[in-house]
Design goal:
This protein is α/β, with parallel strands linked by helices and about 210 residues long. About 55% of the residues lie in helices and about 15% in strands. The mean pLDDT is about 95. The chain binds adenosine-5'-triphosphate and magnesium ion (MG).
Length: about 210
């Protein structure tokens, strides 16, 4: 597969959608063929799974069920969206990927890493991103930017302690995957952050120099 795969991670409201949109505009101006997609989702089946996972009514969902649904949505999304784009030689920008499972279901929910690795083994073996960017901003600040928690979203209303554990897990993953999982300081304006991201990706040869 000749394309490149870039994933974006961060807490709720860290600016993933904003940065992916700005990067997409930048790539479009430079004529770089790319696909913008998100997890869980990006296709009919995975979007349907997303609705089940995030449904605020499903308070009885077990942590294991949640993790398996994310893993199921992931393999479908790889088959429907990511693999075809990579085969066409396109750049794939994906909103959340495997480190979300480690941070949310591992750090946040407390599921063992071995379980998460087992259920995600297909993705881990065949589709590791060329780089995953961590939009680094503490969860409380990120929620402020979003003007608070969306009560209808099961993950967003999981509580402050949960989101603090997610953030700590992301920080630990940065140390575990140097060069593959890379932090971007997001304390500046969205345009400053966007310029940093473009420069980082150019430096790594993942996008052409501007
Ligand atoms: N650098 C920034 N400074 C201030 N506000 C910002 C910045 N970047 C993004 N925002 C704002 O913060 C809010 C959250 O950003 P965004 O929706 O991109 O985050 P997200 O990570 O995609 O969130 P979610 O997890 O809900 O998808 C938006 O209202 C956005 O306009
Ligand atoms: Mg978003």
């Amino acid at each position: 597969m000749s394309g490149k795969f870039i994933a974006f991670e961060g807490c709720e409201g860290a600016g993933k959608s904003t940065q992916m949109r700005l990067l997409s505009e930048y790539l479009q101006k430079r004529g770089v063929s790319h696909v913008v997609t998100r997890e869980p989702g990006g296709g009919e089946i995975s979007e349907a799974i997303r609705k089940v996972i995030l449904n605020g009514k499903f308070t009885a969902m077990t942590d294991e069920c949640e993790a398996l649904l994310y893993a199921a949505a992931r393999v479908q999304h790889l088959a429907d969206t990511v693999a075809p784009a990579l085969e066409r030689g396109q750049l794939v920008l994906c909103d959340r990927y495997i480190f979300s499972s480690y941070a949310y279901q591992g750090g946040g929910r407390g599921l063992p890493r071995a379980f998460l690795e087992a259920i995600n083994s297909y993705a881990l073996e065949h589709f590791m991103p060329d780089v995953t960017l961590f939009l680094d901003i503490p969860p409380a600040l990120a929620f402020d930017r979003k003007h608070g928690v969306d009560e209808s979203d099961r993950m967003e209303c999981a509580g402050e302690g949960f989101h603090a554990r997610v953030y700590a897990a992301y920080k630990a993953l940065l140390k575990e995957y140097p060069g593959k999982f890379v932090a971007v300081d997001c304390s500046g304006t969205k345009f400053e952050t966007s310029a940093k991201i473009a420069a980082m990706l150019e430096e790594r040869g993942l996008i052409p120099r501007g």
